[in-house]
Amino acid sequence: MDRPSSAAPHPITLDDVRGAHKMLSGVARMTAMETSRHLSSLVGAPVHLKCENLQRTGSFKIRGAYVRIAGLSPEERAAGVVAASAGNHAQGVALAASLLGVRSTVFMPVGAPLPKVAATRDYGAEVRLHGAVVDETLRAAIEYAEQTGAVFIHPFDHPDIIAGQGTVGLEILEQCPEVRTILVGVGGGGLAAGVAVAVKALRPDVRVVGVQAAGAAAYPPSLTAGHPVSLGSVATMADGIMVGRPGDVPFAVIRDLLDDVVTVSEDQLSSALLLCLERAKLVVEPAGASPVAALLAAPHAYEGPVVALLSGGNVDPLLMQRILRHGMSAAGRYLSLRLRLTDRPGALATLLGVLSVVDANVLDVSHVRTDPRLGLTEAEVELHLETKGPEHCAAVGAALEDAGYVVIA
């Protein structure tokens, strides 16, 4: 990626990140660095997972939020802070404010997952549900700040936030001094910018690569244009990096310091989340799994040792259920199909017998007899099967065809 030089020096320096690191002593954990044998064999070089999903509040956000609030004047602290978030930033601000004795109000969308709302309240914030989407929630939080004098804590577009997030980069260099490539998810850009500031100042030879969801990839067009560009719409399961416009402050850093920004698909995100759960035994949200998705998409594109930064693990259980099913489908381990059969006693048992012979695990069966599309003696069956991979899926289809069944979807 060609990076034009910035006309002005960056507002965040290595000294800022080091200062944030001292400030966070005893507040943020130095999270574990785990080696992934599976990913290492895939890449052909050591791959390590930096587990910010095990950080306090379940993500890296406590780092930047604490540094930002700790830097407020006594008068600003007395006025309280306000934030808008659907999850991770909300919890980071709530805990940071509580630790510093500052009153916090957090606006969250009406449809925010109940576990995230409950956690934000438990960390000490007053939660106000407003708006159907985060943009509406954000406007409400800004209006509240204007009306009350509370300080608005932006999730990524502030130097203190970026300095706090950059402490992850210092830890990576300490825990894996031989690192050659760092992969980090990118939404607004605060985490990637902070990591880049720390790493490039100390180890300019290390390649830092940002990863965005293809359905919310604002950085590639912005970097081409040379300034932040707003996307017309965003859509991805990775809500932690679902940002339609880069932040002005992190954009300048990322433009100058990041080596590349790549995108990953929804299938790759869900497969990565499934891999983290099954092989690494780590619960990771889709945004946190994005670096692993990049490795799955292009395993030989990155010089090792590689560190994949798992930014968070706050995933709603209902969403997790859907994502895991999607991930199994993407990996060829989940098969959904519909077929018609003669509506007579024993027909369904015969069908299930065929599936048993080919060792397909039946997860769910829906049997429809009454439908205008069906003939008088027909029934339709929808099956959800667990399989062993693409070859097994093909074997299941061949067995059904040999038995005379016609798959219609």
Topology:
Elements (H helix, E strand, L loop, with lengths): L13 H10 L9 E3 L1 H7 L3 E5 L9 H10 L3 H6 L1 E4 L3 H12 L4 E5 L5 H9 L3 E4 L4 H15 L2 E2 L6 H17 L5 E5 L4 H13 L4 E7 L5 H7 L22 H10 L2 E5 L1 H13 L11 H8 L8 E5 L6 H14 L3 E9 L4 H11 L3 E8 L9 E9 L3 H13 L3 E2 L2
Parallel strand pairs: 2-10, 3-4, 3-6, 4-5, 7-8, 7-10, 8-9
Antiparallel strand pairs: 1-2, 11-13, 11-14, 12-13
Helix pairs in contact: 1-8, 3-5, 3-8, 5-6, 8-9, 9-11, 12-13, 12-14
Protein name: L-threonine dehydratase catabolic TdcB
InterPro entries: ACT_dom, ACT_ThrD-II-like, Ser/Thr_Dehydratase, Ser/Thr_deHydtase_PyrdxlP-BS, Thr_deHydtase_catblc, TrpB-like_PALP, TrpB-like_PALP_sf
Organism: Actinacidiphila bryophytorum
Shape: globular
Report how far apart the termini are.
Answer: 43 Å
Classify the secondary structure makeup into a structural class.
alpha/beta
Helix content: 40-55%
What's the domain count? 3
What's the total helix number? 16
Q: Give the percentage of residues in beta strands.
A: 15-25%
Helix and strand sequence: HEHEHHEHEHEHEHEHEHHEHHEHEHEEHE
**What CATH architecture of the largest domain do you see?**
3-Layer(aba) Sandwich
Q: How would you characterize the largest beta sheet? A: 6 strands, mixed
CATH class of the largest domain: Alpha Beta
Output the radius of gyration.
24 Å
